[in-house]
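[step 3/7] fold_predict: job queued, chain A
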Amino acid sequence: MTTQTIVFHDARVLDPGNGVDRVGDLLVRDGHIVHADPADADGALHIDCHGLVLAPAFIDLHCHLREPGYETKETIASGTAAAAAGGFGTVCCMPNTDPAIDSVEHLGVLRRRLSGSARVRVLPIAAVTLGRKGATTVDFRALAGRGVVGFSDDGDYVGSADVMRGALEACRPLGLPVIDHAQDGGMVAGGVMHEGEVSRRLGLPGMPAAAEDVAVERDIALARLTGGHVHIAHITTAAAVDMVKRARDGGVRVTAEGTPHHMMLTDADAMSRGSDGAARFNALAKVNPPLRTAGDAAAVVRGLADGTVDAIATDHAPHAAADKAGSPDRVAFGISGFETALAVMLTLSEQGPLTLTQIVRCLTAGPAAVLGRNAPAFGLLPGRPAELVLFDAETRWTVEGAKFVSMGKNSAFEGRRLRGRVLATYVNGCCVYCSGDLASRCTGGALSVSQPASSGLLQPHPNAE
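[step 4/7] structure written:
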């Protein structure tokens, strides 16, 4: 691990979680943010940040790194490098791997791989049930003691209310959330996209919004009953956002996340037209839960703006090209999301009601609050390890999946013109990503990219045994 003395000059330093919003300089020395006069930083690298934003490194509550078991789609090395390119310093990986992360033994395998390959901090999420089969629950206490930050059968709904109740009761004293893929499995079985006018036009089986609504309603009721913390993953419907708001106002421990693709795209984006003018299914827009209506997407955006939806999460789901080819029923669900997340949200903000400050909050303080004591220490405050992202909020670029750092080139934003791009990411005092576009702003040297020490990325759980 190598560190440099860096002076970021004339940046907009934006840290909503700590009440910081100023234009000025920030000095990083020995991997830490320090109070010092930049003029005293002899031998430092100086970066002209005029017009740029400096914020805490982003936290992603929901991603798929695919390892172990699906390394043809993504690896820990490639996935965390893509996360760094997207400005993420911490990501929470879902357990639908092979084998599923449903035991201390399987968690150990994942942790050993992380220690050798991760470029950013990775916080593991374990399964709710063995094999994610929805029947027998995992050993919550043992897994919590080994550092998992939540439990989820993501990709599948916990269909049994009794099993879900037991999970919420078991996780309450551990202070950990049960993360809910809230979509009734029986109602969406065989579905390809949102059930509505577009699915009927294409003649494809649909996945009704009601499948999410009934699942959210049930699990809010169970959280109310148990006092447990339920977190609604990738919320997509206006009714579900309203249920979360009313439940929270009533004292229920419920949080939620929204994804950039569910806020910018709609079910109309799942339809394309061929050269013959015929309507076709757009496989790149196949996600689970599906893209909904414009009204639903707008409701999720409003939920972020008013604080009902706590966090922006990518649900980064990379696939090999072959996984996204074939008939609609055989194409895999998922979008590669790390490298477009910030730009999608900044582009959305042009239409309102989101502000830059709200977007940064929902990428930093919001997800940190969901994680609670398991969140990394973050913030642009003196004495803290440098965990930051430098980005240009105004530059525009065209999405080309082929240029992604991720092995997953599958983006429903392919060919779209977006606003905002990450220029550098710091994790645990080390620069883990630097765009070539930053070179012209540097004097006194070049920003060097290095691998953080794994000891700084795999912090023990506070309750570790």
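[step 5/7] annotate
The longest helix spans residues 209-226.
The radius of gyration is 21 Å.
exit 0
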